[in-house]
Amino acid sequence: MTDRPGAPTRRGFLKAGLAGGGALVAGKAAAEGPDPLITETQPWAQMWGDGVDVTPYGMPIEYESDVIRRNVDWLTADTISSVNFTPIHALDGTITPQGCAFERHHSGAIDLPKEDYRLMINGLVETPLIFTYADLERFPRVNHTYFLECAANSGMEWAGAQLNGAQFTHGMIHNMEYSGVPLRTLLEEAGVKPEGKWIYVEGADASSNGRSIPLDKALDDCLVAFKANGEALRKEHGYPVRLCVPGWEGNMWIKWLRRVEVTTEAIQSREETSKYTDTLADGTSRKWTWAMDAKSVITSPSPQSPITHGPGPLVITGLAWSGRGAIERVDVSLDGGKSWQAARLARPGQKMALTRFYLDIDWDGSEMLLQSRAMDDTGYVQPTKNALREIRGLNSVYHNNGIQTWWIKTSGEAENVEVS
Question: pLDDT tens digits for 52-111?
Fold first, then answer.
């Protein structure tokens, strides 16, 4: 816990409330007498609860009905080729429930029964192969936790503060435990010819969303996944089988994976030429900027998760990640980057996975300019938005990993702002 000199500690805060003779309500001593929610037997303690068969597949309780994916109506022409956002402001820990993990579709989510699923491996291989879903289940499998981030995450913020909520500025991301077969295993089964240097992967949906991936990456850590968080993939996440490309742009994580072709060079498809390139200030474009650089965001307090309890103990929390390695440190600033203090990592950073951080303070009710700054184990330090703009201008959409600022007002409400 970080306390300013003379500030009350949490223990002292609670002791003071109890010494006053009243019950504690929302962290404050109740002055109006006993709290009936404690002193009186409530309805839920006077009757039977639901039996074990009421919800064969458990659903979130109604009191958490606002923890949902959301889209932005004006962002795309329709919802078929669009994106929605993970409610990161309302979650804790690091694992994203499948039911609220963001979606990105190029031609909508399709229904593909696993009995009808086929995966072809062809091109520069010794033996072209076709696998069924049942075939994939027979290979030795692995489990890995990875984040998936859309290259356009935070893309609307290039020109300035636009969207008022962590869900909308940083919510094109999720973090799940994937189970499946290493792509390397399947490629070795087919036998890659020496002249093979790339693979071209495509999905079974109408867009196919074909992308080229260097063979070295394919043989390193790519995963052909059919489970997430222990259960079958959801329809919107590529059921029955998707590709995982750890640390790299989400558009390369092909859903409904139907074909892997080994080639001598990149195919130069639409999704890697006219799309998912980074236009610089002089009009030239960078391509093949696959890795997602170190990034972080404070999820609470934030515009969708304001401070409602007034001054006193406050937990500041957020997420950090890096597509180049593991998060090693996260610093938090209360004053817009003038000074920094180290946050507490919930656990040591894990490669290509989200890391949860916390900073526990006693808030005195004054304004704050909250920022977080991530550092990964390669030594990379998350830059400011202005530092990115100086290098890349304002024409970009993708790969905005600049430091986010929330203006915390004396009321506890928060707003998306920038500092100079």
Answer: 999 999 999 999 999 999 999 988 999 999 999 999 999 999 999 999 999 999 999 999
| Domain that residue 308 falls in | 295-417
| pTM (whole model) above 0.85 | yes
Last residue of a domain, one of 256, 286, 316: 286
Amino acid at 117: Y
Phi then psi for residue 304, to 5 deg, are -90, -5
Tokens of 390: 């100086």
Q: Buried b vs exposed e over 369-393: b needs ≥16 C-beta within 10 Å?
A: bbbbbbbbeeebebbbbeebbeebe
The number of beta carbons lying within 10 Å of the beta carbon of residue 41 is 8
In a domain, 70, yes or no: no
Question: Residue 144's beta-bridge partner residues?
Answer: 178
Question: 280, 299 in Cβ contact below 8 A?
Answer: no
CATH number of domain containing 343:
2.60.40.650
Helix (H, G, I), strand (E, B) or coil at 171: coil
Q: How far apart are CA 235 and CA 233, in angstroms?
A: 6
